Amino acid sequence: MKSMAEAKIAFQGEMGAYSELAAREFFACEAKLCPTTTFEGVFSSVKNDESTHGIVPIENSLTGSIHENYDLLLEYELPITGEIKLRIVHNLIANPGVRMDRIRRIYSHPQALSQCKEFLKKMGQVELITVYDTAAAVRMIRDGQMRDGAAVASAQAAFDYGLAILRAGIEDNQRNLTRFLIISKQETTPASDPKTSIVFSTSNVPGALHKSLGVFATRYINLLKIESRPIYGRPWEYLFYLDFEGDTREERCREALDELTKVATFMKVLGCYEKGKEVDGRVYER
Amino acid sequence: MKSMAEAKIAFQGEMGAYSELAAREFFACEAKLCPTTTFEGVFSSVKNDESTHGIVPIENSLTGSIHENYDLLLEYELPITGEIKLRIVHNLIANPGVRMDRIRRIYSHPQALSQCKEFLKKMGQVELITVYDTAAAVRMIRDGQMRDGAAVASAQAAFDYGLAILRAGIEDNQRNLTRFLIISKQETTPASDPKTSIVFSTSNVPGALHKSLGVFATRYINLLKIESRPIYGRPWEYLFYLDFEGDTREERCREALDELTKVATFMKVLGCYEKGKEVDGRVYER
Hints:
Chain A is an alpha/beta fold. The first copy, chain A, has helices spanning 18-26, 39-47, 67-76, 110-115, 117-122, 134-143, 155-161, 208-217, 251-263; strands at residues 8-12, 32-36, 53-60, 64-65, 80-87, 91-94, 105-108, 127-130, 149-153, 164-168, 177-184, 194-201, 223-231, 234-245, 266-274, 278-280. The first copy, chain A, has 3 domains: 8-87 and 177-186, Periplasmic binding protein-like II (D-Maltodextrin-Binding Protein, domain 2, 3-Layer(aba) Sandwich), CATH 3.40.190.10; 91-168, D-Maltodextrin-Binding Protein, domain 2, CATH 3.40.190; 194-274, ACT domain (Alpha-Beta Plaits, 2-Layer Sandwich). Chain A contains 9 helices and 16 strands. In chain A, strands 1, 2, 3, 4, 5, 11 and 16 form a 7-stranded mixed β-sheet that branches. Chain A has a 5-stranded mixed β-sheet with strand order 8-7-9-6-10. Chain A has a 4-stranded antiparallel β-sheet with strand order 13-14-12-15, with helices on both faces. The model of chain A has no long low-confidence stretch (mean pLDDT 94).
């Protein structure tokens, strides 16, 4: 989408991970990709200028939010500058020549396994083993030369490691999309279809949340998502992460945020960016 | 809290798991406890009358909601009949005689490991291995007679397996509480301090959530928690799980719920029960 020969994009996982696929769709192919093992690694890489951008999954349409990344957005204070929605196609991947009925162990990220629950149930007696990344699971199958193990991962990961796809599209529901956010110190302004992400907290009195949402309702600003997260060390108190349609430069949005600042006990804009397009991942011959 | 000689309580994990500790505090000790390996196992045990009650964690004050159990509450349609908040004290547990500086691998449930992040960082080069249950991690250390492994779990689990506590209270923050819900076909009515849990969805128009919360705000009904979960197969549409102070038999609550039924596209009461007390877990000599 964006051509940036100088860009270095940090992502969690190994080459062939869904985060890498999403990065390749969002940025032009010439962008350099930097794998990290943890989500926090993505944030610290951008913070320390080892990368110009980071990409992290924030929500899957079937299994819900990735809360760690909500927490990290606030902790690292790195602005959200973009979004992309990747259609997730999971595949059962094994060493060439391995037959389906020989599979006894299946390796993948817990989220990927949970998105293929129905398919895996039908496999009968197989052990599910969780790995920190889907592409890493494929690598383990290859490195171990396993004849009774398989991985759940992308077609790209199968291609990269020269493994066979035993069954394609094994996710329980085809409307399986993961929404990724781009973080960067280089803030942008959305050219079209703007969206804003904020985080706020309210006092614990009846009607406080209602009043906070009222600043948007009275201005016909459409809310896209609300997510609550605990406030660390203050049991049963919450931060609310809110996405709404609109640009912080628009008058009605500026007014709404000004009013929210008065109503809420805390408020921070996390980013204003172009709403993400829905894309299918492609397989690249490296 | 409740004396029920005939009660059979299903919980996830093994004896010594925090769920078991919470069940022992909520019910009298004579209640029979039935361990299951999954949260879904707790729900199906109650549904199939193999247990009279189930207990599941719904939220931790540091790490947030256990979303799987939100989904299961709706899927199984088993009413919530009670609540308890257990103070979680994590301990580093090893075989007797094993010294702290010999520990190279630490086993526990991912949530427990993440609640001890700071302590574990200070341990230096140790491998963290996730297990489905904290008490099961202790059993593995004992069964494997490990001399370089330790578990993060309750004092009860250490006592049950005859293992030593190398360090007590290793959680990053002392305000570490887990809120558990009791589910049962035997609905009760709260004697005092009532609380109601509901789930609803709204149409995707500006102000829809604001209007839904308005039915509570106009009646001064205090909201305790809101949690959003994806609607399966409908990307970026959500169910809202809401807890509020009040009893469904009170007129203002009945009116609010009647009005919400008209405003929302879907609404269901998940339970009306007594607000949970905050308790410390005790160690029982079995």
